Amino acid sequence: MANNKVTNAVNKLFAKIGDGFKRVPVPVVDIAEALAFRVHVLIPENIEEEYVSGIVMYDKHTIYVNENDSFERQRFTIAHEIGHIVLEHNVGKGKEHIDTRMKIHDPIESDIREIEANQFAAELIMPEDEVRDFWNDVKDIRRCAKYFACSFTAMESRLTNLRLIKKVVYEI
Ligand SMILES: [Zn+2]
Predict the structure, then answer these.
(1) Range list of H helices, the chain
(2) Cβ–Cβ under 8 Å, residues 53 and 100
């Protein structure tokens, strides 16, 4: 179920920084920079860090993404961290937020902030109008994912939420 608060936040962000940022693939690093955040890669130095997808340091205005993650996953992570920033998830939560792979790709349902940041990321890198237009042209999830520079799974879930495809139900 889409959360309107998140959709409004994405629209507000594009209105603030300009629709030029809606060009596909959506330039997530430029958007972070438009919000005065720098993006750096995290080079894991131990096992714990290998499980980190991204970090947002609110006070240092810096986002880190794991350099071992795929390009598509890094883009989603950056968009997810932008979500935490724009939705002001830091209020009362300290100076930094660490996202493990689990937190982003398999969040528990009660973790509202992670769910919101994921919805934000999906709507940011796969803008609704652009998705509808491109989908109508190609009707191919893989080509769509390539066009928007996101993972197949992220694309599939966005198309499902926009009711452009039916959720695949595996029956036993
Ligand atoms: Zn997060």
Answers:
(1) 4-17, 28-34, 47-50, 71-86, 101-105, 112-125, 128-138, 141-148, 152-161
(2) yes
Domain segments of the chain as ranges? 4-126
Distance (angstroms) between ligand 1 centre and the Cα of 52 equals: 11
Most distant pair of Cα atoms in the chain: their distance: 50
Residues linked to residue 42 through DSSP beta bridges, in sequence order:
66
pLDDT tens, 130-144? 999 999 999 999 999
Q: Are 99 and 107 in contact (CB under 8 A)?
A: no
pLDDT digits (tens, 9 = 90+) for 14-25: 999 998 999 999
Instruction: Specify whether domain 4-126 bears CATH 1.10.10.
Output: yes
pTM above 0.90, yes or no: yes
Enumerate the β-bridge partners of residue 32.
none
Ligand 1 geometric centre to CA of 103 (Å): 6
